Structures are given as C-alpha cells and as structure tokens.
Amino acid sequence: MPRLFTALEIPRDAALSLSLLRGGLPGARWVDVENYHLTLRFIGDVEGHLADEIANALDRVHRPAFSLTLAGVGAFGSKKPHSVYAGVAASPDLLALQGEVERICQRLGLDPDPRKFTPHVTLARLRNSSPADVAHYLSARGNFAAMPFRVDRFVLMSSRESVGGGPYVVEEAWPLARAEFGGSRTGTGPADVSRGMR
C-alpha cells in the first residue's frame, strides 16, 4: 500500500533554482528534481476507507492562494545528519493551511504529528556524511533564495518505498482561493483514491 501525505508542489522555475544546490556533499543521494515537494502532513499507510474520508474532509478546506519563497538551507540530524533541505521564508498563510490540514487529520483519528512543522523541501538524503562536510555544504550555500512563486493548490500525494524517495503521484488536488460558488478538487475523485491504492 502506498504512503500518503499532503503537500505543495514546487513549480518548475523554483525547482530549477533548487537543482543548482545539488552536488558538493559526499554521501548525499540527491532527490530527483521532479520529486521536489513541500510536505504539509505525513499521513502514512492507511486503509482505503480512511483515505476516502481524508480526501472528503480536505475538500472542505477554503484558504486563499498565497506567495511562497524558498530561502536558506539546513540539515536534519545535528550529530548524525540524515538529510539536507531548502528552507522557506516565514509565511502565515502556509502555517494556517498546514494547521487546518493537521486538525482535519486528527479529527479523523490520526495521531498528532510528533514533530514540529518545519516547512522545507528535501534536497538529499545522507548516508555517512560527516557533520563537517554538511557544515561546509550549508555555509557555502547559506544565502540561497529563489524567486517567490504562487501557491494555488495543495495535493494529496502517494509514494512507494524506494531508495531516495519517490516516485510521487498526485492522487488529489484542491484549489486555493476558490470562487464563491464553490468548486471541487481535481484528480481521481474520492472513490478512486482507495481503489488505486490497494
């Protein structure tokens, strides 16, 4: 069964900026450019009926579109670094969207995410990279900033276990800043979520 998570997609221009950060770090497995994304909420392996409930609940999210800027780089795992990432400039709209998605997931019985939400785009997963090499990589790229881009939808993605993450598939997409008369998500439709994932 695939793993589910909600995310923001990274548009091509921003992805190209991120791709310039590849290289120069021993032990790094670089994420393919087409697999860049910003995770809002990791959901994990869930049964088909719960996947349908989550999709239906997310259909009620009404948030405005907003602008987002990727800026700075960092690493997870201070003593034993396991990944490097591009950070995100402060965005109240992003935090509000993530918070609503988190509340929806908890209302449907999912455990709260134990980690504090740190918006980021994973650049590479590390294997036996030394803290000194990681520190050097980060200091050389600390002034990274991409051009702002507009976030006009969020998505439900699935992934299958593989080395380095991906490939990721968009299962559902929900527009932001919908018209007053409402709207509906695009994608496979709720009934197809579980069918396609079993």
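[next item in queue]
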Amino acid sequence: MRQIVLDTETTGLDWRNGDRVIEIGCVELVNRSLTGRHYHVYINPERRIDAEAVAVHGITEEFLADKPRFAKVVDDFEAFVRDAELVIHNAAFDVGFLNHELSLLGRAALDTLCSGVIDTLKMAKEQNPGKKASLDALCERYQVDNGRRTLHGALLDAEILAEVYLAMTRGQESLIMALDEPAPGSAEAEAALGERPPLTVLRASAEELVEHEKVLGEIAKANKGACLWLPPEPVEAVEAAA
C-alpha cells in the first residue's frame, strides 16, 4: 500500500481568481511506514503573491524569481504521485489548485493519476465532532511535535501530517495485519510456523491426583454439592442419599 502525504503553498486562496501553486511537498508511506523518499519543489507562479499569503508561508516573489515554472516540474511530480493514494489536510483546496495547474498544461487530473484521496480534515471532524481540526490542533491532540512550524511550509507540513495521519489511523493496523495473515490451518499458515518441536506431556502423580480430588471435594462441600469439575453423581446415589 503506497500513500503520498501532500501539501501545497499558493499565491492566494482561490485558483478561480488566478492564484497559483508556488510550493509542493510530498512524503511517501509504504505499508504505513515512512520510507524517507520525498518530493519537494518551489515554483515560479508568474504572478504576484498576496500579502496575506506571504504572512502565512513567508515565500516571496523575489525568492521564486529563479525557480522553475510548473511545466518544468510536472513530469517529476506526476511520476512521484502516480498510482498512490493521496493523504491531504483540507484536500479540496490542494486538489483544486493542482488540478488547475495540470489542466493548464492539458494533463490528466489527480483522480485519474492517483488511486484516491484521503482528507484528514474531514476524517478529524468525523472522529471528533465539534472539536478543532486544524493541523496544529491535531498535533496537540495526538502529541505530534510541531515546534519547527513557525510558518507554513509544504514539505514540513507534509511530514507533520504524515505523523498525524498515522496516529489518527493507528487502530487500523491490527485490521491490516489480520487481513494479511494466512488463514489458520492453511498450508501458508503451517509453513509460517515451520518445524514444530515435540510437545512434552507432564502427567500428575498419584499423590497429586489425591490432593486434586481433596480440593474438589472441599469445593463441592462449600457449594452444597455443586462443583463443575466433578462428574455428576448417578441418579441412584442421589435417590439413596435422599
């Protein structure tokens, strides 16, 4: 199972108003483990950046002046995310911007390129209705260190989100493991067990059996003859006792 945790930074809040992507950060998870592989790029948007956006991520037009256009990095981006499941916080925002960038180049949208999208914002609201669901709030809830996050940054936020996502879905690990395990008694299960050592059987001695019967008798006496570990008395014996 390959997943890509993704985040973007942009020139503003709405691609419909001409805003563009200026940073993409991705980290790779395989079978719920960070692989160390990541994708990170700054992009020249060929337009001004809103002052409010700069206050959030700190990325300026001067810094991006010598950075590549999206057309120059699209092949590498597509190669990194292709066929993976995307994990994004507030997915509608990032997916909308990236699909817009792809459409400007006549490329396929993310739903064709990738196998699906998990929105951790939606997941957090479903798991904890009425609670704050920002990335910072989730870091506090799941005790994920976000001390380095003084400004938003796509790669750093993707790394933090990966830890948050794993914490949010930790209960699924047992289910995944159970689905991967071979069925009991199957050839695969027997092969996984390997060569079994012979079992050692220890039988009770005569003295131990006597002590065992004594304890059972005391239990029966304390419970007015009822003891689950003793065989029921024959009907004739019960009638005779009566």
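[queue empty]
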